Every structure is written in structure tokens, then in C-alpha cells.
Amino acid sequence: MKPIMVIQGRQFHPDIGVIRKLLAEYPGWGRTRLSVELCERWEWRNPNGQLRDMACRNLLLRLEKLGHIVLPPRQRKSTNGCRNRSPQWVSHRSDPIEDRLKALRPLHVGCPEPGSRQDKLFRYLLSNHHYLGYRNTVGESMKYLVHSRDGRALACVLFGAAAWKSASRDAYIGWPAPVRERNLRQVTNNSRFLVLPWVQVPHLASHLLARIARRIGTDWRDKYGHPLYCLETFVDRSRYRGTCYRAANWRWVGRSTGRGRNDRHHRLQVSAKDIYLYPLVGDFQRRLRHDT
Questions:
Q1: What string of H, E and C letters represents the secondary structure of 10-30?
Q2: Is the domain covering 94-289 a CATH 3.50.50.60 domain?
Q3: Which of 77, 162, 174, 244 to pair with 180, CA 20 to 30 A apart?
Q4: Do residues 154 and 148 make contact, with C-beta atoms less than 8 angstroms apart?
Q5: Phi then psi for 221, rounded to 5 degrees?
Q6: How do residues 11-31 score in pLDDT, each as one tens digit?
Q7: What tens digit of pLDDT does each residue of 140-160 get?
Q8: Taking the model in full, what pTM does it have?
Q9: Residue ranges for the chain with pLDDT beneath 50
Q10: Cβ partners under 8 Å of residue 73, min gap 6
Q11: Other residues' Cβ atoms within 10 Å of the Cβ of residue 36
Q12: Other CB atoms closer than 10 Å to residue 184's CB: what's the count?
């Protein structure tokens, strides 16, 4: 019987026999070569036609951990540890900014290119100034780095994979579990929102949330080839009141139960959080409930 795996929010039934056969026939293949071959055989591509190579490697690692297969030794050191190390300092101004929003406009809201100086600055700022820090994202994600008109960094905003389950969110949308598993990628989670600590500008946070909400649907489709219908976020009530989200017209839909956002086995205990949603289309519930 094929095991049922969930990769990036979607159920998958990998053919263990095919994987074992390839491992036996091509002992010289590395893990990357194996994952590319499997993606091509399974026609496992994203909406832009690119092979889901990283997702397949994640699948292989999980199958090995469960004892279904034995992968060949790594041919080179994993880059994941390097990605998640504390980023090196990147030069930037940190003098206090206490002004009206109007004085800083027009703002520049950009999506840093991987490996660029702006990307390194984004990682450094989140790692050093957000209480949750920064770890390399898995799956689809979007970064926004905000500067004032004179080039001073103001804020970092990160979107990534939506929570696997959330009772309040799922009840509000009204989707059954099988539909949620198929359509979850049409929701993204605002996992990090940082206005830099030396920036004290009234209404900046809600302005940025509203501005990014107007463009993220297009940015996401251009990058990943499929639509987004809703944004979500989880606000730790012990630290924040969610004022900027409410001011930007995000909808409070309930509170979490104190489990981790990706906890499928009832093992993770975290502080309860307020859950907010922001619809990107008027009929987002109907679209997310659509059984494709």
C-alpha cells in the first residue's frame, strides 16, 4: 500500500517501488538527480511548468526517515544549515525616524532577489529585530522590503505557507478537509511583519498592509502561476493587539487553540493567537470551497 504524504499542503501517494528500483539501477545517482527523474516521471511541476525538485527532495527525506527507503550519501554539504545561520551584518542606516507618513513618501516596496544585497539586508533585519527571528522558508513565499523615498529601510514583510489546520479559519471559510488540502496553496500566511524599532511613523503599518494586499495577488501569480484568494496571520496577544491589521480591514475570525500552526499530531504547544484573514476577492469563500 502506498503511504499517504502531505507535501506543501497537498496529499501525495508516492510509488515506493519506483523509487527503490531507481536507487538499485543507478547507484551512482545523487539525491538531486533522483528527485529530478521522479518529478519528470510523475509530471510533478508547479503551474509555471518548473519541476518541484525541492518538494520531491523533501518527500524523499521523509520517506527515508520513515524507513521506506535508504538514500545515497550526500554528494555535497546541505545548504539548509547555511541558510538558517545568523546572517552577517549588512550596512544600513538606523538613525531614528519620527515623522509623518507623508514626509516619507513615495515609499518603495520591493521584492528582494535571492542572494542580492537587499535579500541579505531583509534576512539580517528580521533575524535581529523580529522576536521570532528568521528561518529559511519552505515552499512558496514572498518577501517585501520597504524603503522611504530617501532610501532608508522601514519595514520587512514575509508571506509563506498557510497553516495546515486552523479551526476558526476553516470554519469561517467553510471548507471540508479534503478541499482544504487541495486549495490551501491559494491562502498565504503573513508570518513576519516588522516595522524597524527605530521607525516611529503613525499609520505606517496599516498603510503597508493595505498596499501589499493590493499587489500580492499579481506578484504571486507572476512568480508561481496560480491565484491567491486570501491572506491570513496569527497575532500573539501577549505581545500585540492586532491594531494595524484591524485598521487595514483584516477580519478577526477567532483564536487559535494553542497548537502550532503546522501541528498535525497534537504535539506542539504554543501561546494562543488571534487569527485574522484578508480576502483578496469578494467571493473568496466560494472559490476556496470549490472542489477542483
A1: EEECCCHHHHHHHHHHCCCCC
A2: no
A3: 244
A4: yes
A5: -65, -40
A6: 667 788 899 999 999 888 988
A7: 999 999 999 999 999 999 999
A8: 0.74
A9: 80-82, 261-262
A10: none
A11: 16
A12: 20
